[in-house]
UniProtKB/TrEMBL annotation:
Keyword Transport: yes
UniProt xrefs under InterPro entries: AAA+_ATPase, ABC_transporter-like_ATP-bd, P-loop_NTPase
Alphabetized PANTHER family for the sequence: ABC TRANSPORTER, ATP-BINDING PROTEIN
Protein name (database record): ABC-2 type transport system ATP-binding protein
One Pfam family linked to the record: ABC_tran
Entry annotated with the keyword Nucleotide-binding: yes
Domain named ABC transporter: residues: 2-227
GO MF, one annotated term: ATP binding
Record-linked SMART domains: AAA
SUPFAM superfamilies in alphabetical order: P-loop containing nucleoside triphosphate hydrolases
Length: 233
């Protein structure tokens, strides 16, 4: 469903991604794990057509993101906060996103309900808490009922109840046959949720596969992470 093939990204003289290759499959939660600056956001931005690779390719359902006629019906994403203009209310923002992708207006109320923002529908995005902003971003991602979700650090800013809620939501999405790709540097969250792991360090994939296989031989995911990324615990 989501495939990254031999992606290289150079910024000036620096290579920030070096032949990154992996897949996120339907029915699975794939966690993209790596230390700060490893290249997670750079990879996801290329997958979502926000940046170009120097070489290699990233495909959503077999096509580059930019060639999808109604992208939000194929892949929903949250990269950086809610993505809403500060002065727009949650409802206005979602209505605008829905219109831009030919999504029926009734979906706005449905996703506000689904992410627990029905009571805050009229609040301006600039006044939402960090966690509520994350929920609004997720509401926009869910609008088009896409089979795939791509989320950069989805639990940032969420309280424990919010973390439990998003875990359940992502699990249910995958269990219903959807594809979930999320980036994280939080080990506990990933150990609870992921089926598959892709570990990146300094722009290279250093391990990929089912969670139990990647962590085999290590007492915990945290130990596996530090061993694979060359860090120290
Ligand atoms: N717009 C940019 N211009 C120049 N360098 C950049 C830019 N964006 C990212 N980088 C560099 O590319 C490398 C990878 O960054 P990236 O944000 O993809 O990492 P990350 O794994 O998402 O890290 P984090 O967990 O800190 O968000 C870093 O060295 C970063 O400094």
């Amino acid at each position: 469903m989501l495939s990254i093939d031999d992606v290289v990204k150079r910024r000036g003289a620096r290579e920030v991604l070096s032949g990154v290759t992996f897949r996120a499959e339907p029915g699975r939660v794939t966690a993209f794990l790596g230390p700060n600056g490893a290249g997670k956001s750079s990879t996801l931005r290329i997958l979502l057509g926000l940046d170009r690779p120097t070489s290699g390719r990233a495909l959503v359902d077999g096509r580059p993101y930019a060639s999808l006629p109604r992208p939000l019906r194929v892949v929903g994403s949250v990269l950086d906060g809610s993505g809403a203009h500060r002065s727009r209310s949650a409802r206005q923002h979602l209505a605008w996103v829905a219109r831009s992708n030919g999504i029926p207006r009734r979906r706005v109320g449905e996703v506000l309900e689904q992410v627990g923002l029905a009571d805050a529908a009229r609040v301006r995005a600039g006044r939402l808490s960090l966690g509520m902003g994350q929920r609004l971003g997720l509401a926009a991602a869910l609008l088009g009922e896409p089979p795939a979700l791509v989320l950069d650090e989805p639990v940032n800013g969420l309280d424990p109840e919010g973390i439990r809620w998003i875990r359940r939501l992502l699990r249910a999405h995958a269990d219903a046959g959807g594809t979930v790709l999320l980036s994280s540097h939080l080990m506990a969250e990933v150990a609870e949720l992921a089926d598959d792991l892709v570990v990146i360090a300094a722009g290279r994939v250093v391990a990929a596969g089912p969670l139990d296989r990647v962590t085999a031989g290590h007492p915990t995911l945290e130990d596996a992470f530090f061993a694979l990324t060359g860090g120290t615990s």
